[in-house]
Amino acid sequence: MKTINSAIKNYSQPSTTVARGFTLVEVMVALMIVAMALPALVILVMSQVDGAAHIRNKTYGMWIAENELTRLTLLNNKELFPTYKLAEKDSGKTEMMGLEWQWQFETASAEELPVKGIVKLDIDVAVLGIAEGSNFSPAQGLEKVDPIAHLTGYMSE
Q1: How many contiguous H segments (helices) and E segments (strands) does the chain have?
Q2: Is residue 116 part of a domain?
Q3: Is pTM, for the whole model, over 0.85?
Q4: Within-domain flag for 7
Q5: Residue 53: inside a domain, yes or no?
Q6: Which domain covers residue 54, as residue numbers?
Q7: How many angstroms separate the CA atoms of 149 and 157, rounded?
Q8: What are φ and ψ of residue 154, in 5° steps?
Q9: Which phi and psi angles does 106 have, rounded to 5°?
Q10: Do the strands 89-96 and 99-109 form a parallel or antiparallel pair, or are they unpaired?
Q11: Sign of the CA dihedral 138, 142, 148, 154?
Q12: Per-residue confidence of the chain (157 residues) as pLDDT tens digits?
């Protein structure tokens, strides 16, 4: 009986050990901090994804501008195409990487070069949208679309 009484006596006395764990206030503060930090992190990740997409589109736009400059250089070869005359302005559409692009170029005299007979070509490229299954409003002449890429080249007249 003595052992039962001593056990009851020890049980009823307050313990000197401290309970470990977080209080409700601490948990709520931590949850509030996480709730405020997560949207900021998501916004940061989304801006990085948007930046990568812009760089990708700018690269594709430069490729299209370089392709157009190469096409014009080949057409301007007097041995292959003796009757070709380089237009002052032209525009067109092309498809690359599942997107539809509009290119346009203008020629001007290359006043910054001391050589006669050289023309300057300014080529602008803009993305119009997804190529497959979309209804595009056609580009009329030199419709002004914000260019994503710009290339300047020079060639003989």
Answers
A1: 2, 4
A2: yes
A3: no
A4: no
A5: yes
A6: 32-156
A7: 24
A8: -130, 145
A9: -135, 145
A10: antiparallel
A11: positive
A12: 556 666 555 555 556 667 788 899 999 999 999 999 999 999 988 888 888 888 999 999 999 999 999 999 999 998 988 998 988 999 999 998 888 999 999 998 888 888 888 899 999 999 988 876 555 454 444 455 689 999 999 988 7
User: Can you say how many angstroms the Cα of residue 58 is from the centroid of all Cα atoms in its chain?
Assistant: 7
| Cα distances (Å, whole numbers) of residue 23 to 20, 26, 29, 32, 48 | 9, 5, 10, 14, 38
Q: What CA–CA distance (Å, rounded) separates 125 from 140?
A: 15
Contact indicator for 147, 125 with CB cutoff of 8 Å: yes
Query: Who's near 141: CB < 8 A, 6+ residues apart?
Result: 91
Tell me the C-alpha distance between 144 and 140, whole Å. 9
- Count structural domains, the chain: 1
